[in-house]
Amino acid sequence: MEPPAEHAPPPSAPPVRRSIWIPSVFGAVFAFALLSSAFLLPLSFDAIFLHLKIGELIVGQQSIPATNLFSFTAPGHFWIAQDWLSEVVFFLVHEWLGTAGLIALGAILNAVACAVVYRITVRNSGSPFLSVLVTLLAFLMMVADHALSPALFGNVFFALALSILEAPEKGGRLRPVLVFLLFFLWANCHGSFLLGLAMIVLYLASATFTYLWAEPASGPSARGFLRDFGVALVATVCTPHHVFGLIFPFMYIRQALDPQLSFLASMSDLRAPTFYSPLGRMISFYLLFSGFAVLGSGKAPRPVYVGLIFAFAAFAFASVRHIALLGIAATPMLAIHIPETLQRTWQLLPRTGPLADLLVRLHGQLVEWDRQSRKVLLVLVSLGLLGLLLGTDPRTVNRFVHLAHSARHAARLDRAYPRGLIGYLQQLGPNVRLFHHVNWGGALIYAFYPRLQVFIDPRADCYPLEVFYDYLAMHRVDGDWKQVLDRFRINTIAYPQDSELARALRLEPDWRQGYADGQAVVYLKRSVWDIPSNSEEKTSALPSLKFF
């Protein structure tokens, strides 16, 4: 006997087919907007010159340097080119497309990282709109200290690793291959692969905790994460440096903890953002927003999310280069908790019932429209991108450079690449022994190596501690600073005009000013006053500069 009609179960709604691999129109439009707006962002070029020179050496010599080649203060000192593959990519892009190509590469890497973040959030939240919001927050964290460096590759690989760990069932039998390829490329592109290994350990510990103290079926299996860690660990030693590439960063913990070297860290992306600085406030507001999302949802976060937030918040306050990783690591938790938080917030507000119902219906209609039309509009967006490329005159890069705001980037290039100083040094004789500001080391290496070797450069992993102490003695004009000059036979000093060292040299009778501009001043020792210059020969030996 059939049950009465009024007791019949309601017909189930047809399942919504959600393709995660095909980006929705909102994801495509957001990626397009991101790619366009990235050209408007301030971009730091401080480190790119050194990476370009290393990439040039690797391509030209078909080998990876294993010692410090660029400095007379630490000749032959053991060094591992951890970022060699990304440096080769930077060099080839610069050779083919110049500075405009480098700017475009940085924008594309940011866009790819944001696309992966969007994929993670839309999978956890099911809402394209909330996913765009969370991705925008991650994007702001990524560009907090936007520098053209191998760290951009590291951000992409970090987001991909998080996407894999958030879907432990994905990949099937090919999952070990995907994990191996990811960490193999990551270990050859950037040293942040160690944080990827640590993230797997966090997921493994969370799965183990869930298995031991919660319902075994309530979370992913620890066995899968253990397999991922083993595969990733094997991949990270499949580099030209083998196991040394894995343990190399730990060899310099002493330098990282040395309080006297905090000055050098403050001038690079290793600097720690203070709590009251703009970057420190950005981190604090992001953490407060994350806390609001969790507390407002009324649900306890997964242990792995708590570990990710605390770990990468500590990393972000320790170094500005890790701010982007905090923005990426917090996205799964935000995607899960924000929908519930917004729903509970609407319920608390008075007289918002009709408005809330209207927004819910509008959101449902737009999500359905997005689901039905994503393939068609994805083609239209792709055609729009193609039209933009075809509309650019292929015979010149002027239009592309104009799009990239060449004036702003040219000003930043001039600060990182002291053109006037380098032009003057070209005119000096071959016996120059130069002491210079550490931030100019990469530009001097790019312009003069192998004709001239530098005193120091921004790399913290290829100099003994004694060299850093000697540099600090010169910078601070300590009591034994003249002994450093005598020991290294320094006869030329290039430093900022407003520095203590420049003021001290004005009072030294054996030194005279040879050059000055708004950025740098050069002092020459008496022994090089009358050295004849041969600027024509040395200028021809310099590399071809493809900057603005």
How would you characterize the largest beta sheet?
4 strands, mixed
Across the major sheet, the strand order is 1-2-4-3
Structural class: mainly alpha
The best one-word shape is: elongated
- Averaging pLDDT over every residue, what do you get? 77
Q: What percentage of amino acids are in beta strands? A: under 5%
List the uncertain runs: 1-23, 393-407, 531-545
Distance, first to last CA: 84 Å
Alpha plus pi helix count: 24
Order of helices and strands: HHHHHHHHHHHHHHHHHHHEHHHEHEEH
Secondary structure tally: strands? 4
Q: What share of residues is helical?
A: 55-70%
| Number of domain modules | 2
Radius of gyration: 27 Å
Characterization of this structure:
The protein is mostly helical. It has 2 domains: 25-353, no CATH class; 417-540, no CATH class. The chain contains 24 helices and 4 strands. It has helices spanning 25-37, 48-61, 84-125, 128-142, 151-166, 175-189, 193-213, 222-236, 243-247, 253-257, 262-265, 278-297, 303-318, 323-329, 331-348, 353-390, 398-403, 406-416, 419-425, 441-448, 465-476, 481-487, 500-505, 535-540, and strands at 434-436, 492-495, 511-516, 521-525. Strands 1-2-4-3 form a 4-stranded mixed sheet. A hairpin with a 4-residue loop joins strand 3 (511-516) and strand 4. Helix 5 runs antiparallel to helix 6 (175-189). The longest helix has 42 residues, at 84-125. It starts with 24 loop residues before the first helix and ends in an 8-residue tail after the last helix. The relative contact order is 0.12.
Topology record:
Layout: H1 25-37, H2 48-61, H3 84-125, H4 128-142, H5 151-166, H6 175-189, H7 193-213, H8 222-236, H9 243-247, H10 253-257, H11 262-265, H12 278-297, H13 303-318, H14 323-329, H15 331-348, H16 353-390, H17 398-403, H18 406-416, H19 419-425, E1 434-436, H20 441-448, H21 465-476, H22 481-487, E2 492-495, H23 500-505, E3 511-516, E4 521-525, H24 535-540
Helix pairs in contact: 1-3, 1-16, 2-3, 2-20, 3-4, 3-5, 3-15, 4-14, 4-15, 5-6, 5-7, 5-14, 6-8, 7-8, 7-13, 12-15, 13-14, 21-22
